[in-house]
Design goal:
Elements lengths: L7 E3 L14 E3 L14 E3 L10 E2 L2 E3 L13 E2 L3 E3 L14 E3 L14 E3 L13 E3 L14 E3 L5 E2 L2 E2 L7 E4 L5 E5 L4 E3 L8 E3 L4
Parallel strand pairs: 1-2, 2-3, 3-5, 4-6, 5-7, 7-8, 8-9, 9-10, 10-11, 11-14
Antiparallel strand pairs: 12-13, 14-15, 15-16, 16-17
């Protein structure tokens, strides 16, 4: 039948509660064990996607990846978490991509974030942030609509960005910020942002 079909569950209590969900692949102890009416999920690892009831189209790979995501009504979550404890605290956020151990660890309800690199965005709770690089944005907390390329964590080199929104930061491999855009002005620095060069784009 079309109900409760094309599901694969391997591991202690993996997928044990599925009633009408379809197309789920759940591998590992307690993987997807609370899912009931949910479709198109992939959970691989102990307790991966272990709390969700009705979220669909999630991918959780790694021990406790998306372990606390939980939708009480049918929702296409579109969350992807790859790495141990990636997206661990996410509850109802959607369209997030976490790649790396502990990426997006603290985010609960923020949506549309992309964090790539170990511990990337580990404390961030906002939405529409893009952090790329090991520990990139790891000190960022409540801000949204930020982009960080490189290992800048959020507060170094005379630049404290921990709670700001709508910024672009370019940093080097040593986590030093080299360029910042705040929505209107670029600032560039070879050393410390206290003496950075500003450029507003005018001729």
């Amino acid at each position: 039948s079309a109900t409760n079909s094309y599901n694969v569950a391997m591991g202690h209590d993996a997928g044990r509660a599925i009633s009408t969900g379809i197309n789920n692949t759940l591998i590992g102890g307690l993987a997807g064990d609370a899912l009931t009416d949910a479709d198109n999920n992939v959970a691989v690892g102990l307790n991966a996607l272990g709390s969700d009831r009705k979220g669909s189209s999630s991918t959780a790979v790694g021990v406790s990846a998306l372990a606390n995501q939980d939708f009480a009504s049918s929702t296409v979550s579109s969350n992807t978490a790859v790495g141990t404890s990636s997206g661990l605290s996410t509850t109802t956020g959607t369209a997030n991509t976490y790649i790396g151990v502990e990426t997006g660890y603290a985010n609960q309800t923020g949506s549309s974030n992309t964090f790539i690199g170990r511990s990337c965005g580990i404390a961030a709770t906002g939405s529409s942030n893009t952090f790329i690089g090991r520990s990139s944005g790891s000190q960022m907390t409540s801000g949204s609509n930020n982009t960080i390329l490189g290992r800048f964590q959020g507060n170094s080199g005379g630049l404290d960005m921990r709670t700001v929104s709508n910024h672009i930061i370019l940093s080097d491999g040593a986590a030093n910020p080299r360029a910042r855009h705040n929505g209107s002005t670029w600032r560039f620095s070879a050393n410390d942002f206290g003496s950075a060069l500003e450029f507003d784009g005018s001729q």
